Amino acid sequence: MSDAETQMPAAYPMNAGEGDYSYSKNSYFQRATTNVLKAMIDEAIIDKLDIEAYVSSCPATIRLADLGCSVGPNTFIAMQNAIHAIQKNLTSKGLLTKMPEFQVFFNDHAANDFNTLFKSLPPEKPYYAAGVPGSFHGRLFPESSLHFVHSQYALQWLSRIPDGISNRNSPAWNKGKIHCTNASEAVCNAYAGQFNKDMEAFLKSRAEEIAAGGIAVLTMPGKPDDVPYSKIPICVMYDLIGLSLMDMAKEGIISEEQVDCFNMPLYPASPAEIAQLVKMDGSFHIEKMELLNTQTRYEGGVHAQDIVMHLRAGLEGIISKHFGSKIVDELFRRLVEKTQDFSHLLESSYKEGTLMFIVLKRH
Q1: Which of 60, 156, 257, 268 to pair with 314, CA 20 to 30 A apart?
Q2: Coil, helix or strand for 216?
Q3: CA dihedral (180, 182, 186, 188) positive or negative
Q4: Residue 246 burial (10 A CB sphere; 0-12, 13-18, 19+)
Q5: 10 falls in which pLDDT band (50, 70, 90)?
Q6: What is the CATH number of domain 13-362?
Q7: What is the pLDDT of residues 32-42, one digit of tens each?
Q8: b vs e for 211-235, b when ≥16 Cβ sit within 10 Å of the residue's Cβ?
C-alpha cells in the first residue's frame, strides 16, 4: 500500500440522524446549489462524456460515484440528475437498442451516517446502489472502473490539520485563531501546502479509477486569485467562530490554550491553485472552471440563524471532539449574535465568485 493509503486521514462527519441539528435537515444551501448547477452538469455530461465508448459492449454498465456524499437527499438528487442526463444523451443519439444498467457508489468516511443515508434511498431509483467507506484522498475503486465522478462541498476539507499551526514552537503557530483567515503568511502557506498535498492525492487516485473519456464534476468553496480570505463570506464566518471561542476563553468557559491548538481543516482554493495542480498531475484536461455567484441561490436573503444552523450541522462534530459537547449550544448561540453584530463584514464581503465549479476530463 502507498503512504497515502497507510496514513489514516482524519474524519469530520456531518451531524448524523434526522434531528434539528442534523446535516439531513440543514443542508438546503447545498441543495440549492445542486439545483442551480443541474443545467451545467447536464451540459458537461452531454458535451464531454465519451458515452459511446462505454455502451459498445453488451451488457453495458455505467458507473457513477459521489465522493463525500454525507447524508440526506442531496446526493440522491445529484446522482438522479446525472443518470437522466446520460439517458437523454444516449436516447438523442439513437445509439441504443437497450439502455445500459447504472451503478452508483456513495462514498464518505467510515464514520459517516450510512444508516440514515440508505434508509432514505429513493424506492424507485434507476440504479444499483453501493456504499464505499473511505477517504477520497486515496484509492477507492478498481482501475478504469468509473465513468462519472461527482463531488460537491467536500474537497475543501483537508485530510489533516496543516503542520505546525497548532505548535507554539512553530513559525506557523496560529495563536488565538482557528483558520487562515486574517492569519500570518506562514499559516496561510501551511494551509495551502496541505491542500496541495491532498489535491495531488485526490487527482492521482481519480486518474487511476476513471476510464479514458470519463469526467469528474467538482464543486467546492473557492476564492478569486486576488481576493484575501478575509473577504470570502464563509471565511468571515470561520473568523466569527474563532472570536466567539476567544470570548468564551476570556470568561473561563474554555481555556485559551484549547483555542490556540484548535484549527478548522477547511480551505477555499483559487482557480490558479487548481489549474497548477491539474497541470502537474497531467491526467486530466480542464473542460470548464469558473467561480460562480452563490447569492443568487437564495430567494428572500439568508438570515443569521439559517447560516449558523447550516454551520452547526457541518462543524459540530469537530468542535465537540476538541472542546467537549457541553459548550456547543452556547458557542452557536454566541455565533448568531456575532453574525448579527458583524453583519457589515458579511454584507461587504466578496460574493461575485465564491463557488468553484470544475469539469475535468480523463485523457
Answers
A1: 257
A2: strand
A3: positive
A4: middle
A5: confident
A6: 3.40.50.150
A7: 778 889 999 99
A8: bebbbbbbbbbbbbeebebebbbbb
